[in-house]
Amino acid sequence: MRWLVGWSSTATGPAAGGAGPAVLPVGAQLLWGEPDPLWAVGDWRPDEVRVVRADPETRLAVFGVCGATDDQLRVGLFAARGGALRHLTAWPGSYTAVVQVGRRITVTGDLAGARPVFHTSWAGGTAYATAALPLADLIEASLDVGHLAALLACPDAPEALGSGTPYEGVRRIPPGHALVLRGGARDVTSYEPATSLAVAAPQIAPEQAVDGVRAALVEAVRTRLSGPRHVPDPEGLDPGPVPGMGPAERRAARGAPAPGVGADLSGGSASGTLALLAAGLPGQPGTLNGHGARLLAVTFNDLAAATAGRAHHDAELERARSIADNPRLRHVVVAAGEEALPYADLASGPLTDEPGPSLITAARHRRRLLAGSADHFVGHGARQVLDAHPARLADLLMDRRRRHLLRPVTALARADGPSAQSVLVPFTVYRAARKLARTPYGEGIADTARCLLERQFADEPVSGGAVDASLAALAWCRPGPAARWLTGESLAQVSVRLGDAAARSPAIGRPGERRARAALTRQAADQRVFEQAAEVRNQRLHAPFLDNQVVLACRALPDTLRVQPDARASILRSVLSGSGVRDLPPGWGTTSHLPRTASVRAGLRTAVRELVELFDAPLLADAGLVEARVVRKALRSAAEGEPLPLDGLAELVSTELWLRRLLARRGTCWTGAAARQRALAGGVVPRASL
Predict the structure, then answer these.
(1) Any alpha helices (H) in 337-405, and if so which ranges?
(2) Which of 178, 207, 413, 603 is least enclosed, having the fewest CB within 10 Å?
(3) Which of 537, 591, 596 is nearest to 565 (CA)?
């Protein structure tokens, strides 16, 4: 786990109680000192922390993977000194920038939310960090039960979540914003260009927009490839030949990734695009001391869930093998059975900064990542930045582009197969899109608040069809899949949050654009939890689709291009074609959620006894969020095959797991803090890590 932390005070640096020892983060590297210090905490690589200085009081620190040269960093520092922040966010890569100009400190977040910034009031000033838990340790914050309720009831609704975190007093800056501190006082400002509310943004030509996506993706991949190569520390010598195990298997058993660069290769369009781009760019992606010149491509073979979707499963493996025929790729297939199903090995696992559904699949993904490389590409976020959210159909109606709705609604009519109602689907979808286009923002949010109070959920009963899912998404806001299992008191609390947001917030943006950004923010938050939960020592996961540069390029794609059937595969095919990759296997870009749903249900069926025991006396029930009896019944019913929303159950289980790990934690991230002094007096040796 890696994070940065600092503070801005009204005078000199704060201390614990004034007379006691100074409060310092455990295991930190000091980048600059008082009165507004900054530290890097955790296992940062040397090339992941860069500092440039113009003078003793004007300096810039960049944390993460940044493609800017030192000269470009200095230009960005001079621009930020004058107040221009967009220069700090336009470089390729995924990073956090901190600028100090005198007593003014500026910390930039990213557009997606994968690199968030948190802040809290402390010692008369403001402390900030890229993780919420260290700040909660610093102020000894209590749990914010209202935020947990909103996270379960409306996880993709910014109106319900606001700027809060699971910790009282710790706030998060929104994506696309920067935190500006002046002598302890704080201000949150946007660095995105302002758009007109009267007319839609100007649309560029589709070919030009796709070229922009290609350039951004290629630059994002090249930035990772041009970085230094790192040799993972195996924590011990290779024990030597083991019958039936090669060097790669022995290394995976010891818990260390392979040297060099690798990528996921599932046969899907997103991961396949990154693997082919990384393998096709000039240079040798895996070069390390003259060895390993090929990029390592990893495919996960789920043996336990393959029977539910055998045809799709076999086709996906065949596409992965066909792509891996590239001479610059080295293909590794990781096969696993019931031991790698979702909900497996829940007893062990690290404490993450926040709860997330990735906690139930961490052990599953860690098996795949252990077979990967020290720098590993994943295709997460491609769906959110490239696909058209169903609510964008309303945006087209607002722009008077009705004819562009013909192809997407016709494709929806065919998605669930032929039926007697298929002929009515286009008219049903059109009416729903028109209703959304004519519904004011405040009215739509208030409608969702009323549905929570009356326990009316748009996706109940669950049918799992594409048409029903699209109709449910044609709204300004909607309850999440776990909302049906929350208590009436917690739903009422969330409805109050939504009502306040509807009365306070103006109608900014159009429904499709707002819903698409909210979906991207949710995916970025899940990606951050995923990286922490499935973390492999000495490995870095890279998700180029969540980079600022790529997100901006994808936002320039016209809505008329996004809403076309198979738009994501078509765009990525054009990206590869423009990069010289044209020989793709048949069926490339085919999407199906059947194997994932089958594996989740199989894991639930296997672990149902342990899950029911987990909710014998749940902490969620102690907090008043759920009734244990209701959740236990839902778990048993879902394991028996009843069509309940599996994502909602996953969120309940992951939140309960996170609460138990948080309350079982001993220690603090700070020396000199009151909590650490009490722990030492009680004979408890605190842990420095999260």
Answers:
(1) 362-370, 382-386, 392-398
(2) 207
(3) 591
Are the C-beta atoms of 4 and 41 separated by less than 8 Å?
yes
DSSP 13: -
Tell me the residue length of the chain.
690
- Cβ-contact 651, 658 below 8 angstroms: no
Q: Give the DSSP letter of residue 544.
A: G
For residues 292 and 524, give the distance between their C-alpha atoms in angstroms, rounded to a whole number. 31
The one-letter amino acid code at 219 reads: E
Token pair listed for 203: 């649309």
Strands 104-108, 177-182: pairing is antiparallel
Query: If the chain, 690 residues long, is cut into consecutive pieces of 10 residues, what is the mean pLDDT of each piece?
Result: 90 45 85 92 93 92 95 94 88 96 94 96 94 94 96 92 94 96 92 62 83 96 88 58 59 73 88 91 55 78 70 82 87 88 89 94 91 93 91 89 81 62 76 91 91 77 64 89 95 93 74 92 95 92 96 92 88 92 82 72 93 95 95 95 92 96 87 61 45
Residue 32 burial (C-beta neighbours within 10 Å; 0-12, 13-18, 19+) = middle
| Number of C-beta neighbours around residue 619 at 10 A | 19
Residue 298 — φ and ψ, nearest 5°?
-115, 130
Q: How far is 274 from 209, CA to CA, in rounded Å?
A: 19
Q: How far apart are CA 448 and CA 466, in angstroms?
A: 21
CA-CA-CA-CA dihedral for 116, 120, 126, 128, to nearest 10: -30
Sign, CA dihedral 338-344-347-348, equals: positive
Q: How many distinct helices (H) and strands (E) make up the chain? A: 25, 19
Report whether 216 contacts 553 (CB < 8 A). yes
Where do runs of H (alpha helix) occur along 379-440?
A: 382-386, 392-398, 406-415, 425-438
Residue type, 375: D
CA nearest 212: which of 386, 433, 23? 386
